[in-house]
Every structure is written in C-alpha cells, then in structure tokens.
Amino acid sequence: MKPPLLPRLLAPRLPFFYGWVVLGCICLAGFARQGPAVAVLSIFVAPMTHEFGWSRTQMGGAVSLGGLLAAVLSPMIGPMLDRRGARLVLCAAVLGTGLATMALSLTQSLAMFYLLFCFARMNWAGPFELGLYGALNNWFVARRMRATSIATLAQMSGLVALPLLAQLSMHGGDWRSGWLAVGATVLIVGFLPCWLLLVRRPEDIGLQPDLPAAGAGRAAAEPRFDRSGAMRTPAFWLLSLYTVLVYPVQAGVSLYQAPHLIERGLSPIGAATAISVFSSMSAVASFGIGFLPRRWPVRHGLLLAALLLGAGTFALIGVGSLPAACVAAGTFGLGIGGIMTLLPMAWADYFGRESYGAIRGVALPLQVLAQASGPLLSGALRDWSGDYTWSLTVFGILAALAAVTASAARAPAAAPQLP
User: Fold this and answer.
1) Closest to 234 (Cα-Cα) out of 350, 353, 342, 328
2) Cys staple from 247: which of 15, 169, 370, 397, with CB 3.0 to 4.6 Å?
C-alpha cells in the first residue's frame, strides 16, 4: 500500500525523526479509542435504564459480547496489519467507532443498542489494540519503552476526558446529546491525523527505525519471527499464560473496587477517592516506565508489575479505612499501569516487527477472554460467599502465579530469519 503524500513530502525535510509524528497519530487514535470504554458507558447506565427499563446486566452484556466478537476477529486482522499497515486498520476503527457511538443517540431498543455498542466495543478490544501497538512497534525499537509509555498515557487521558465530556453534554439528563458528543470527538480527534500522516513502517518512506547501536547492551539486529516460528518458542506460551493470569485480575478487581470498599465501611465519596488514586497511579506507572533503562529486560518489569498487582489485591481484602484503601488501590494501580505498558512491548521485543500483527492477533483473543472472565468470576464468588474476600484471594493468587511466569519468560535465544 503506497504511503500517503504528506509523509513522503515531510519526512526528508523534518529536523527530527518522523516516528514522533507517527507517535502523535497513535496518541490521538488511542485517545479516540476510549469512546466505548466501560468508564464512558457507566455515564449512560442510569439515564438509559431509566428510560427503557433495561437491567444493568442487559447493558453490561454488550461489553462482554463485543469482547467476544473481537476475540474471533483479531486473528484475521493481524496478518492484514502486517501486510497493509496500521493506517487502514486504525482509520476504519476510528470511523466505525465514531459513527457507531453517534448512532447510539438514536437508540430505540435493546437490539439496536447491542448492535451499535457491540460493534464499537469490538473495535476497542481488537482493531485498536492491534493497530496502535503495531504502528508503534514498527517505528520504535531503541526508544520503544518511552514511546509505549507515552501512547498508554494518551489512552488513559481519553479514559478520563471522554466520561467528563459525556456528562457535561447531557443537558438536563439528555443522554442522546452525550453519545453525539462522544462520537463526534472520536472522529475529530482520531481520523484525519491517521489518514494523512500514518505510515506503515519507516522503510516505506526511505527511513530506518531507531535501532539500538551494537554494544549498547543489546545486539543491533532485531528478532524476525513469523507466526509459526513464534508459536514454537516457550516465550510465546509464557507470555500468553501471563496474559491469561493477569487480565482476569485487572478486570475483576477494577470493576468491583467501589462496591467492595463500600461494603468494608467506606463512604461512596471515600470509595471514589480510592479509585481516583488507583487511576492516578496507573498513569504514573505508565509514564514512569518510559524512563527505565532500555537494557533492563522487559520480563523484570512484568514480574514487578505482577507483584504490585498481587500486593494491591491482597491489601484490598482487609481495608477498613480510607488511607488503607488508597494505599491498596494505588499499589494495584501501579501494577495495572505496568502491565498495560510493558506487555504490548514484550511481544515486539521478543518476536520483532515484521509479523507483530499476526503473532499478537493469535494471543489477543486470550487477553479478551481473560478480561471477560474476571468480572464473571468475581460476581459469582460474591454471590456465593456474600462478600469479595474469596474473589480477591483468588485474584491475588493468580497475580502471584503471573509473577512466577514472568520470571521464566526469557526472550527467545535465536530467531529464524524471514526471507
């Protein structure tokens, strides 16, 4: 696919690496990605259930169904991403998400809501995840850690800003205006930069990625695995196992933090304060990772993130005061920020850029299904036992097992050279 005209004209004349322009496009698309995020949907739950009489379970089911659709779609998107680049994938994801969320303002039935929101959520869980990190990893190698931390922070800013935008747009409880504002913002922020400026990889416009110099703690040559070669390595399955272990914890604990803290005696305002600490620490971890030495093995970061995740989860079990809740939630947030930033980077560091989409597309369904299982497991254990102690205990154990897995997930010793 021929690169857009503007990058071909601009790249040779810029006094800096064109990859930073690509990163800017990725950040804007990552911000736009959050249109169908759970935090945005939560703003619409009360007014929409009040108007239509739907249950909370009916609305929440759209999140899970959209994730399942992404699990089916991702293995097909990955190879196309490698062949055509992230520009087509991300532009289609932004356009589809923006139009679908705007169309939610016309919702008249549960079936219509499911059709539109599941489509948007499918984009969130599949095409966006593959496209954002596929584009980033094609351009950045030596500075991949810093670029990934910036991209993750941009996504978190969307997670903060879009729910506020939706709330402010609901004049007198008019939820339809909220969806229009969210969808319009997705289109305005995310589409044009990707369409005009995104390039598949630096080689397409006569540039090179920022490869590390030989002798700087890493070999200058990148790994070059194809999908079948990657799947024959222990590293592929260990990273997949790590994913399966941490994402039920991420989803299951995050969703039920507030109800658990209120059951432990905190006020709703206290619970909201603890959750804000959780969100802030997630952002701090994501940004801080960008300043870690690049020579530090990524598995060490994954190990530390899993330990923080487990420590925060176990600490939540016995909280009885606001300071204790903030410490537990903040520790958990540090772990989440580390995982969200480091795990996409690990796949590229271990297996290279050339087949990133195909390799990640096989593993991504495991992540999506693991995320879907966390809230179900937590809710079932809560209904069975009467509180969240058992679910938090199980999640803490899963995080500990993930730490053990990370310690064993070494980079493949040798990479077969692609033709």
Assistant:
1) 350
2) 370
- Count each helix (H run) and each strand (E run) in the chain, helices first: 16, 0
Tens digits of residue pLDDT in 98-122: 999 999 999 999 999 999 999 999 9
**Percent of the chain residues past pLDDT 90, beyond the cut:** 46
Token pair in block for residue 15: 């006094």
Q: Does the reported pTM lie above 0.85?
A: no
pLDDT of residue 415: 53
**Both structure tokens of 68:** 């399942």
Residue, of 214 and 293, whose pLDDT is higher: 293
Sign of CA dihedral 18, 20, 24, 30: positive
Domains and CATH numbers, the chain: 16-201 (1.20.1250.20), 227-408 (1.20.1250.20)
Is a pLDDT exceeding 70 seen at residue 213?
A: no
Task: Say if residues 257 and 274 touch (Cβ distance below 8 Å).
Answer: yes
Maximal C-alpha separation, the chain:
65
350 vs 254 pLDDT, higher one: 350
Tokens encoding 84 = 């055509």
| Closest by CA position to 316, among listed 279, 261, 269, 273 | 261
> At 113, which helix (H) or strand (E)?
helix 110-125
Helix, strand or coil for residue 213?
coil
pLDDT at 277: 86
Residue 198 contacts residue 330 (beta carbons within 8 Å):
no
Q: Are 144 and 341 in contact (CB under 8 A)?
A: no
369 vs 172, higher pLDDT:
369
Task: Tell me the C-alpha distance between 182 and 162, whole Å.
Answer: 7
DSSP one-letter code for 353: S
Residue 1: the pLDDT is 63
Mean pLDDT (the chain, rounded): 88
**366: number of Cβ within 10 Å:** 17
- For residue 102, give the nearest of 195, 35, 161 by alpha carbon: 35
Any idea what the Cα angle at residue 190 is, between residues 186 and 193, rounded to 5°?
155
Residue type, 175: W
In terms of DSSP H, where are the helices of 198-297? 227-231, 234-263, 268-289
